[in-house]
Amino acid sequence: MANKILTKSENFNTEYCCSIVKIGEVKPIENKDKIGYTIVNGETIVVRKDMVKEGDILFYASNETQLNKDFLSKNNLFESSSYELNSNAKFVEGHYKEKKSMEETVVALENLFQQLVKWAKFLISYDAQLVQSETKKIAELNSTYVTVCSNIAKKTKKQLDIRKNNINDFIVAAQERAVEIDYDIQKVKRDIEKNAEFIRDNVGFFNKTGRVRAIRLGGIQSMGYLFSLDELAKYNPNVKNINLDELVGEDFDTVDGELFIKAYVPFVPQRGSKGDGKSRDRKLNKKIEKFDRMIKGEFSFHYSTDPLPKCINRIKPTDVVTISFKLHGTSICIGNVHIKTPKKLPFHKLLWNKFVDFTGLFKKHRITDYIVEYGNVTSSRKVIKNQYINKDVNEGYYGIDIYTEYGNLMYPYLDEGMTIYGEIIGYVSGSEKMIQPEYDYGCNKGENKLMIYRITTTNDNGTKKEWNVFDVKNWTEKLIEEHPEIADRIHVIDIAYHGTLADLYPELSLTEHWHENVLEKMREDKKRFNMEKNCPFCVNKVPFEGIVLRIDDDDIAEAFKLKTKKFQKREAKLMDDIADGKEELSEEMAETYS
What we know:
Blueprint: E1 6-7, E2 18-22, E3 27-29, E4 32-40, E5 43-48, E6 57-61, E7 65-67, H1 69-74, H2 89-142, H3 147-201, E8 211-212, E9 215-217, E10 220-222, E11 225-227, H4 229-235, E12 251-252, E13 254-255, E14 258-259, E15 261-263, H5 277-288, E16 306-307, H6 308-311, E17 320-326, E18 330-342, H7 347-359, E19 370-379, H8 402-410, E20 418-426, E21 448-458, E22 464-466, H9 469-482, E23 495-500, H10 501-504, H11 514-524, H12 526-529, E24 546-551, E25 560-563, H13 565-579, H14 587-593
Parallel strand pairs: 16-25
Antiparallel strand pairs: 1-13, 2-6, 2-12, 3-4, 4-5, 6-11, 7-8, 7-15, 9-10, 13-14, 17-23, 17-24, 18-19, 18-20, 20-21, 21-22, 24-25
């Protein structure tokens, strides 16, 4: 990036960042005058027509990210329930308290109104019963032909009329008072709405976490958040002099050295955090002192899979691509790579090394205490599980070390210099718990499978080869054929399409918005890609996750994912449930987002 203010951190993730974008066409939404929608990084986002127009250069925060709280505070973007976090908190506080007071008044008036209504109904019912009872008595008296009875009947009727009139007066008074109270209620409610509208105009819509999440506006799914240079300048005035025209298309997560945006992860108590901080530090230092088997550059984690909507412009119509189904499990890498194996030294040489390590002197003369050979390295998405020589078994996140289990299973079948990347799906071994909630992938309880989706090989001179997806599929099928004993542990990668995108949808014009149109076609393709349908591999009815696209013989090791809207919606709800303590944060989610 040309400037030194908007930069990428060491842990930058292209899926969870800010982009500098130029707004395209703002399209109308039916029956909506004030809002429209546009496409940003391949995603729809609803905008106000009076605030955003075609050609504007703005900042776009990706969906399911977490924005810097100081930025949100400076721009008064926290919602009314968290207004105290905004910079205008004192200004809003008086109106907020007044609104609360009026709401309490409405509750009191509504209770009084209900009491009056009940009292009026009681009087009307009592009046009807009284009239019925007394009228019956009068009729009985008049039925006799005794003068005295007739006189008593007349007197009783007169008394009844007086009592009826008194009751009617009470009923009328209660009804009139109820009407007055209802008028007062409506008036206070109008005042509350005016107050609420004022508060809404002076606060935003972010909750206290600063999470950017999808919302539905005007029937359109709005993904992400747009903001201007002026808004960013309120947070950091140093950005005022940046020429955004030169930076369109650039990504960043750091502003002037401070992390500005990151992937949203709901807060959960840290596992295994018993004891005080000093105790945990001692355990950590003890681990670091163990023998490190790794040789720099020998083993590589899986690269981040970029979102296809954001990267669709990098795909040419003539590129030969392979599109496979994406499965929802936990990532694993298993490599047969060069490692350091410790060798036993004579006591005097061991003592010398300890002296060098303790003093930091004569490092060049430290005696080599290991040999280099090929060995098994197994990791999750971001954590090497056997980096250190350690006899202690680490049960890991799922209660058992599911990664080491597959590392030991697959390592004997790997050639020297070979690394496989895959997804473990189904249940935790020997447990009724699923690796990802509800995604069973047809496995019996306590069982799981490995889908291998990527393979790399490194020869003796260090040259690395990235295998095409079909080669990965062929290797996996051959492995099952030669070793049927592990067939029930393997799920062969499912390839949905191989060829050019131009051939995939030949009806699309290659000159008129081809990238946008081909993306939209893929999003809606239920027949080829199972988009927006239930997962075809699961017994449970759960949303299909999506697809992965890779360019054959690509010079860059990369892949692009396209998730279904239904899966994204489910992911967002799962985040809510984790935050509420209803679900657990899986290791895969924690490593992916953090």
